[in-house]
Design brief:
Elements lengths: L6 H14 L3 E6 L2 E5 L5 E8 L4 E9 L4 H27 L3 H10 L16 H12 L13 H9 L5 H20 L17 H6 L15 H4 L9 H13 L3 H5 L6 E2 L4 E4 L10 E4 L2 H16 L20 H11 L8 H12 L4 H7 L7 H6 L5 H18 L2 H4 L7 H24 L1
The protein binds a DNA duplex (20 and 20 nucleotides) through helix 4, helix 6 and helix 12.
DNA sequence: CCCGGTGTAGCTGCTTTGAT
DNA sequence: ATCAAAGCAGCTACACCGGG
């Protein structure tokens, strides 16, 4: 290493260099040197040499900048370069996203020889693999250099749908979270990539939905039933059943013939098939009874003997897959109605015809508003619900197109008349109540 | 190559808990 | 006593896959 020269020596060298009228370099030691140009400009430079680069950086000109000042400046630059280099070295020691993610992914691969995970399959693994494929552009990036901006630029180059990209970001986050736990990176900069309000987040965020879609009861015919007239028999029975009983689709899909008591006019649903593990009795109206009876006869005629009222296509021993009945509804109604939304429809209608809050809530199998009431009030309003259900089912019946009405034995005319007058009575009571206030 | 079946993620809305 | 946040269970959407 060149020894550090003194101020006196430096001045002397500058003078000789200037007199030469020729480009000369004066080495001042410690990576600092001064280049004297042919035109007499004396410029200080510091040489910065690390593993990745070898360059000189301009510090200033003599005599504006003294030798001492230049040396101080040079030292600052050198230490900064050294730090930078160390960070770079550290960075490059981190594994790349490609290598880490493939290791991470292999964890989800189900080992067929292990009897521990016999209930699993490779769906999850395959889905994650698909997401990582979308992020292939990140494979050569070290883990600690991944940030939302880079992810965004990689994603914008692919032609996948926004939904697929969003899922890819979720997968990326899961992977990076694992990397944090493994101690490879300190934090995941993409953690809030989908949650924050930034421009990048907005590009991938899912538009918020306003609850489950539903329509007013009066629109059920046009917006729901009429759009499903071409569905198979079993689906039509399911839709009518769900609309009339206002059960959750999960409970309805599990319905077994043994739960239905035609004699006592009740459907008894065991606790394990209801939300919150509460057993639930549904009053069986004449409409629903007829609907189910005719369906049962049809099943026997077609020799589809199943413990389930709504059985799966794949096996008579399995309940119907919800997606089977769900998809036609979402597709045919242009997402204006969902099966769960029918409960809202029923609840709104009941409020409109003046059914007391308590009875309506029980009809939908909701817990009483106050837990104190729930503890002391064991009465389940079953008797009252019989009437409510009869009126609601009569109303649904009036909403059914012919293709659905055919599923039910034509009720006796005087029964229909009674339902009609009962409903009108109830409506007039509400009208009176309204007019007095 | 399409159609229907499948598991999972994320979301919704009810229920419970906790704070005032 | 009241209200809002957190927790939880169920619902829908999504992407994939295998069989026709």
């Amino acid at each position: 290493m060149k020894k550090i020269i003194t101020h006196k020596e430096f001045i002397k060298q500058i003078e000789t260099a200037l007199s030469k009228n020729k480009k000369t370099s004066i080495n001042c030691g410690g990576n600092l040197f001064n280049e004297v140009s042919s035109k007499g400009l004396c410029t200080f430079y510091v040489r910065i040499r690390t593993s990745s680069l070898d360059t000189k950086k301009l510090l200033g000109r003599f005599p504006d900048l003294s030798l001492k000042e230049a040396r101080d400046k040079a030292n600052i630059e050198l230490t900064r370069a050294k730090d930078e280099n160390e960070r770079q070295l550290q960075k490059s020691s981190k594994p790349t996203f490609g290598s880490y993610s493939s290791m991470w992914l292999s964890f989800f691969k189900v080992d067929p020889n292990s009897n521990d995970n016999s209930h699993k399959n490779n769906k999850r693994h395959d889905n994650l693999r698909a997401s990582l494929k979308i992020l292939k552009g990140l494979d050569s990036t070290p883990l600690d250099l991944i940030n939302p901006k880079i992810v965004d630029s990689v994603l914008s180059k692919t032609d996948k749908t926004t939904g697929a990209k969003r899922i890819a970001i979720k997968a990326l986050n899961q992977c990076l979270r694992s990397a944090v736990v493994d101690g490879i990176i300190d934090k995941n900069p993409c953690e809030n990539m989908l949650n924050s309000q930034g421009l990048i987040a907005q590009r991938y965020r899912k538009p918020k939905l306003k609850g489950y879609a539903w329509v007013e009861a009066e629109l059920l015919k046009d917006k729901f039933f009429s759009k499903l007239t071409n569905e198979p028999y079993i689906h039509k029975v399911f839709y009518t059943f769900v609309a009339m009983t206002s059960l959750r689709v999960g409970s309805a899909s599990e319905l077994r013939w043994t739960w239905i008591d035609f004699d006592n006019k009740v459907i008894h649903i065991p606790a394990e098939y209801m939300k919150m593990n509460r057993e639930f009795d549904v009053p069986l109206s004449d409409f629903v009874a007829s609907l189910l009876k005719r369906w049962e006869i049809q099943c026997i005629r077609e020799e589809n003997i199943s413990p389930f009222v709504f059985y799966a296509k794949s096996s008579l021993q399995k309940p119907i897959r919800l997606i089977q009945v769900q998809d036609p509804v979402t597709n045919n109604t242009q997402k204006e109605v969902t099966l769960h939304g029918l409960r809202k429809t029923a609840r709104t209608w009941m409020a409109k015809i003046g059914v007391p809050e308590m009875i309506a809530e029980y009809a939908l199998s909701h817990e009483a508003k106050s837990s104190l009431v729930a503890v002391y009030n064991k009465y389940d309003y079953f008797k009252e619900r019989i009437t409510v259900m009869r009126l609601w089912n009569y109303f649904i019946y009036t909403q059914l197109p012919d293709e659905f009405k055919n599923l039910i034995d034509p009720p006796a005319q005087d029964f229909l008349n009674k339902c009609k007058s009962d409903l009108e009575d109830q409506l007039s009571k509400v009208a009176l109540f309204k007019s007095e206030h």
